[in-house]
Amino acid sequence: MAAQITTPSSSLRDITKIERIGAHSHIRGLGLDDNLEPRKNSQGMVGQGKARKAAGLILKMVREGRIAGRAILFAGPPGTGKTAIAMGMAQSLGSDVPFTAIAASEVFSLSMSKTEALTQAFRRSIGVRIKEESEIIEGEVVEIQIDRSLTGATKTGKLTIKTTDMETIYDLGTKMIDALSKEKVLAGDVVSIDKASGRISKLGRSFTRSRDYDAMGADTKFVQTPEGELQKRREITHTVSLHEIDVINSRTQGFLALFAGDTGEIKPELRAQINSKVSEWREEGKAEIVPGVLFIDEVHMLDIECFSFLNRALESEFAPLVVMASNRGMSKIRGTQYRSPHGLPVDLLDRVLIVSTTKYEPEDIEQIIQIRCQEEDVTLTAKALTVLTAMAQSTSLRYALNLISSAQVVAKKRKPGPHTDSNGEAVKEGEVGVDDLRRCYTYFLDEARSVQWVGEQQGILVSDEVEPGDRMQL
Ligand SMILES: Nc1ncnc2c1ncn2[C@@H]1O[C@H](COP(=O)(O)OP(=O)(O)OP(=O)(O)O)[C@@H](O)[C@H]1O
Ligand SMILES: [Mg+2]
Questions:
Q1: Superfamily of domain covering 131-236
Q2: Distance from the CA of 355 to the center of ligand 1, in angstroms?
Q3: How far apart, in whole angstroms, are the C-alpha atoms of residue 59 and residue 32?
Q4: What is the band of 254 on the pLDDT scale with cuts at 50, 70, 90?
Q5: Is residue 371 scored above 90 in pLDDT?
Q6: Rounded distance, CA 27 to CA 35, Å?
């Protein structure tokens, strides 16, 4: 069957992501130097040198296209930076290498089968770099003439455009007129118009107009009037994911589903057609495969069916690098009675490279706290920083990081003006001192105190019946 496979245009990629302050928003990369040696404190990353270096090595292989179809597992105690390192990898990958992050439990909560959800995640992580020839019109605008109908509802017009060698008049429809006025195109501008999409980009103002001072802003760029033919062919490349190609060609879904995120199940026959078409493009030199990274956090939440699917999928023709993270030790493989390291079946474990993360040293913790304070715009006094670092050691890093913003709220509630803490330290207005931290420490329980408190409430809180001494198996 001669399949007509269309690809989404590059403009789809223009949707910008909204940045907010989240748990990992301070991470801007892995903080490695050119030799992949971890810097002490760089790009928001501190300590955990071995794991960062391993992540850097893996990334290098991804960039060289040498590691598709492999799997990596970050294993270590909670709060040791597994998710943070994966986010750092995503930041250093470059814009056209796809990175998909999912939490294993998402696979169960979508309105589709587990394997479909995993397949979509796999295909989101494979990029197809497509080379396309497009026709453009490039020249200096000589004149724009617009005629409005009496009601103003319809507009027609003419655009006169030239190169150093020729001049042509084009008829304009309403859409083009709107596009021209949106870009504020004037006579004397050098523009490039994509014939297929009608997209107009302003390249600058023509040198011949450099004396028209009144039509100039401070950032006006002057360019030469183009030479030769008005219409040119130009090669452009853009990268889309296999999943985007799937969705756009899926008859029941179509283009809008990509924005809604509600893609439903996609037929295997369609995927097969797309795979063979993409292979064909690759052989003809029209497209390149860019294997990306799929990150599955909390991977022990997958069940035995998902694991066996992963085993197979990793061996398929289009497989990304799969990075997994887990904080479990010996635990049950979901869906079975068997226990296994990290809750992963041994045949999968056998295929993965395991990178371990370890607990942080006090100086690392202090630096992570400082970085988070900068990120959240909070100033701690010197003593407060020491106290919070000590708290992080006796409770957990996460607990301490959570206290930063709550302590700031408490600090803001103080009477305006400077104040002296109970330990004698002067605290400026807006700063967080030891007293503010102490107060928050009493408001919010950490894990150990919570366990103790629950123990004290025996018979008062409603509890599930458990055997004495039974604890959640980590
Ligand atoms: N090396 C590091 N440099 C800077 N920030 C870090 C580092 N390690 C962890 N953090 C920060 O500490 C917090 C906890 O780390 P993270 O969420 O990565 O832990 P995790 O290993 O994924 O734990 P879990 O097993 O509970 O998921 C996050 O806000 C993270 O950004
Ligand atoms: Mg995590």
A1: RuvBL1 DNA/RNA binding domain (2.40.50.360)
A2: 15
A3: 11
A4: low
A5: yes
A6: 20
